[in-house]
Design goal:
Layout: H1 13-24, H2 29-36, H3 40-48, H4 57-66, E1 84-89, E2 96-101
Antiparallel strand pairs: 1-2
């Protein structure tokens, strides 16, 4: 049985960011796949059928790097009064600080 293609409403924010990045870079799925060392079928699967829920974090990181982006997975507490989150990205002289201000968590 063929996996059901996702509607545009079912895509995650991360999937949308990757699709937008591919489009802005002027790449086809096939060209993008070559940049990260995989097949067009895998990219199509990740972004149009089963989604990124089956992709490894390493694969998503490779996608981000191919689009000149930084992939930053975050774990944020569900409860509490967290309204500011600051952390370092990178190492050595390439360290950058990311400062997030959050609204009320629901």
């Amino acid at each position: 049985m063929q996996p059901k293609k996702k509607s545009s409403f079912e895509r995650s924010a991360l999937e949308w960011q990757i699709i937008q990045g591919i489009q802005e870079a002027g790449l086809t799925f096939e060209e993008f796949a070559k940049k990260i060392g995989t097949s067009r079928a895998n990219i199509s699967r990740d972004l149009t059928t089963v989604g990124l829920n089956k992709a490894s974090l390493f694969r998503i990181k490779k996608m981000a790097e191919a689009l000149d982006m930084e992939f930053i997975p975050l774990l944020i507490p569900k409860k509490g009064k967290l309204n500011r989150y600051q952390f370092k990205i990178g190492a050595g002289e390439g360290v950058r600080t990311l400062d997030l201000k959050l609204g009320k968590l629901r």
